[in-house]
Fold these 4 entries.
Entry 1:
Amino acid sequence: MLKIDIHTHILPPQIPNFKEKFGYGGFTQLHDCPDCAGKDMLDDSGRFFRRVGENAYTPEIRLREYDTHRVHAQVISTVPVMFSYWARPQDGLTVAKFLNDHIADVIAKNPKRFVGLGTLPLQAPELAVKEAERCIKDLGLKGFQIGSHVNSWNLSDKTLFPVYEVCEKLGAAIFVHPWDMMGQEKMSKYWLPWLVGMPAETSLAICSMIFGSVFEKFPKLRVAFAHGGGAFPFTLDRIQHGFEVRPDLCAMDCKVAPKDYLGHFWVDSLVHGPAALKFLKELFGAKRICLGTDYPFPLGELTPGHLIANSGLSLEDQEWMNHRAALEWLGMKKTDF
């Protein structure tokens, strides 16, 4: 059975010194690790952030590992810390172009095994629109990974509507990934930004797009959300109830009930347990769930495809989750692989 993993991250093997180039800090660095097989991600003050293995930046290793797990194709996108939405607009564009060119180069060498999602300087929507056109028309990417918010803007902010409009026009898929998690000042211990903040961020993104009428105004926009939709599936009844009892607060910009949008967007399968995946299937249907692992990071699914294969799902449901839902979201065909 063909398997397409829609949620994998990749880095270039070398990242320019953007602090030196632009004259201010905040940019992630990638340094060789002399005592390990991998590299260290550092902030521009040289402080350690994360260690990544060679599979984070070496396509050949990724392919060998995925052959072992019988997963045929990866949809590759940057690591969210690289979004750089806080940078000056033109500098953000420079970073995005560097990352997008790298992803396009990886795909060009293995076009049957990799599909690319670009990144955009969303802090400057007019620049993001132009880069979106370049990525789809010139680089052959299939869509874009965006953050769960853009600085002070939630995804409902009308400033972002030109980006949604061009993505809908180009037929580009959108993958929403949590980043810059809310409440981090209260989560300094126990890895809580990743365990608590990320699910909340994804729910924030979904609710913002629903209540902000994004799906209503751009009905052909194909959007998928990471981590099974985060906290959204498990709090949907609360969200729906709030919409019904306080429409004055919830239905200000969109009169369509949240539950009516089930089936209008996709989620990945990264929920870590069979009971959660079954619940996700009951809520969204198998046709809106795509295999997603967060490869190559440890909080992801360490054996890609294992959860879908071992959750007691029918072969038809597994087929949808393993590749058919991804093909619809990407706007691709099985013969493309």
Note: Residues 4-336 form a domain with the TIM Barrel fold (CATH 3.20.20.140).
Entry 2:
Amino acid sequence: MATLTVASLLVATAPADAAGTPTTTNGPCGYTSTPDDPPARPVSLPPDPEHTPDQGIVRVVVATNQGPMLLSLDRAKAPCTVQSFLHLAKSRFYDFTTCHRLTLYPTLKVLQCGDPSGSGEGGPGYSYKDELPTDLPNWPDDPTGERKVYARGTVAMANAGPNTNGSQFFIVTAQATPWLDGKHTAFGQVTAGQDVVDAISAVDRDGSDRPRDAVTLDSVTVSD
């Protein structure tokens, strides 16, 4: 297994050379299958209507072994990302999965989930484009202007580079995350259950940032 470094965090493994012919949906989101990187759990490509819903907040209840959280997903900020996340939730892709990474560095404090294999290398067998945030404030005292403030409770996508979003996502557990540079799609917020996030943050972890006591998503349910 590759050695984890700060640069490797929040990364879902990049696809290798294609072993088959990718399939791409016809809608504006263009979800594209990754034959070389098959799904960690069987799931179809998401619906990709001619007009992706891009208004309103969708609430999702995440039941964990530490307690429930309520996520509010913003269609206007990231319509294709929300569409994909809801599809995976309704397909039970996330149910009974393990959050494989918990970082507590001064520069990066996140909980990363969304890989049914629990390895940090699994995904849904498809990828799609970035919907990068344009309204995040710059990190204070960063002369480059590249570092962005992902506020505590932000839900965002892990990726392996531009336009490689899949199923892995992370929750910012504390605002002290100046390592983030605006290259991760932010699509929601924890609006209830931040105490659960805090409890998870207190879980012991090993040298690879894997919780020693498993943190599991028992179910992810769309509530409206």
Note: The first strand starts at residue 32 and ends at 33.
Entry 3:
Amino acid sequence: MAKYSLIPGGVKPGDILTVMLKVTGTDPVTGAAMLECCMPNRDGGEPAPGLVAIASPAVPLPAQENKVPVSAEIRQGGTRYAHLIEMTRGLEPIRTAVVHPVDCNSLVGAVAAARAKLIVPILVGPEARIRAAAIQAGVDVSPFELVATQHSDASAIEAVAMARAHKVEALMKGAIHTDELMHAVVDQEKGLRTARRISHVFAIDAPRYPRPLFITDAAINIYPTLTDKRDIVQNAIDLAHALGIAVPCVAILSAEEMVTESITSTLDAAALCKMAERGQITGGILDGPLAFDNAVSLEAAQTKGIVSAVAGRANIFVVPDLEAGNMLAKQLEYLADAHIAGIVLGARVPIILTSRADKIEARLGSSALALLLARHVKH
């Protein structure tokens, strides 16, 4: 049996909760073990305390079964995101244009990031729809500035104009398609282009991987050229530096480790490593081509006779194309209990790019990335 205090914001199916338990004693009547618990709520507020009682089995297990060894592995997801958010403590939140937040998920995510002191949201979109979504989600948007637009395309154009005018320091994707937002961002005359190719990075908190893990590019560049990949790699290295990783290890992924003209990604990998040697890519250690198993497992690399400073130690995984990267990231999320945050780099401001299905953890993690990157660049 369990007794919980009310969790503000409620809990929905599919939410991932971190619960801390402490055994405090036993119930004198039932003999049940009593545990104090602390459970965070969905929207980034204060944890909710509670009490859990666990009863012993009514019938003792047979002696033979008692002798069967039992092992358990406890893996806690989201710890790296918690660390990212902790790194932002003391930093001034970034003014962020939330583009077209007309559904509950995007609006609740923006409000949660504001409560966590990661962003100061400026809501850009149709006022009536934003307020209707706020009522449906049960959140108060009255403390936040609202810039009214007629439709999603106008929301993207207005948010980009605000960034060009230095009225905001970041953009956050709301209930708008990525291509519609990015169309305004990459506009040649009125967009947010820089000399660097714009790219996307997934920051992935994989509980079983012992180090930070980034996948690029899995959302913007569909079939990047070698020149595109140079910028994609440099963008990811710069992000790693902003997060305190002084010399990230970069694995250029392919289907195999040998350079062969029949697999273009192996040629690109070899060229990127040579570009790093010549100073065209700086700040990280590159190696490739590497198959995924060699990038994550030193044992696998040693078995294949691969001598590499990156194998088994990779932080950044550079995929051949968007399809491979998107599948890899989603596989980690749904099959390996990974948490995924996303950010677009190479524009004049960071762009917090999350899926409409993403949970609060992803939106907070992405906001923390943007804040750390913005403050790192500024200083």
Note: The domain at 90-193+348-379 is CATH 3.40.50.10950 (Rossmann fold).
Entry 4:
Amino acid sequence: MALSPEISIITVVFNDRDHIEKTILSVLNQTYKNIEYIIVDGKSTDGTLEVISGFNEIAVVISEPDRGLYDAMNKGLQVATGDYVWYLNSGDQVNTGDTVRTMVNGLAELPDIIYGGTMIIDEDQNEIGDRRLKPPDQLNWKSFKQGMVVCHQSIIVKRQIAPAYNLKYQISADIDWVIRAAKSAPVIHYSNMVLSKFLEGGLSGNNIKKGLKERFQIMTGFYGFVPTLLRHFLFGIRLTNFYLKNRRI
């Protein structure tokens, strides 16, 4: 018998009128229709909500102030009713119109987590390339010792094991979330597909530094201080060598 799980796709947005429509269309134009689409808007003031209001097919729209990205993501999780939750924030897109159907057709059972690859795109929708970190063929919670080996936009988690985001982390709660989800997942399935497109964007220097500090704290909690310190030291050496090799003179 063909499987047909309901997938709750959750989009968080705040003042992003320029990108939200592409995200919405990538979900609503899926050939697979057993999708519950939820948008959590942080009370935008730039016309974002007017764009959202033009689509009657969206199952749930929440528009109210929040305490940041992860608080908004928790709100989406609280109202979701599907078998799975999938976070695609504003600017992200489902890879193609047939991605969800193809992914579901590739399932022999309903795993606890489904994951895949991610394509990076620019503002003009040009494909820049795959992420530097490739998803492993076999994923478990220890895989994230190497960093975010699966992009948050390309990991789909059974709602019954999906944890709430830890709001003490303001930048890196996503890696904490995926590790905790993976620890609770006996069956993890690699789709062997590119599941999402991720809009390339920059963080400020302060956010990068804060995010790295949070990530170090998270990974130390899961994997221990000394192993985490050693991996970050080796990563720093590789990153320095990469920039020295590729810098423009």
Note: The beta strands are 7-13, 35-41, 60-63, 84-87, 93-94, 113-121, 127-130, 155-158, 188-199.
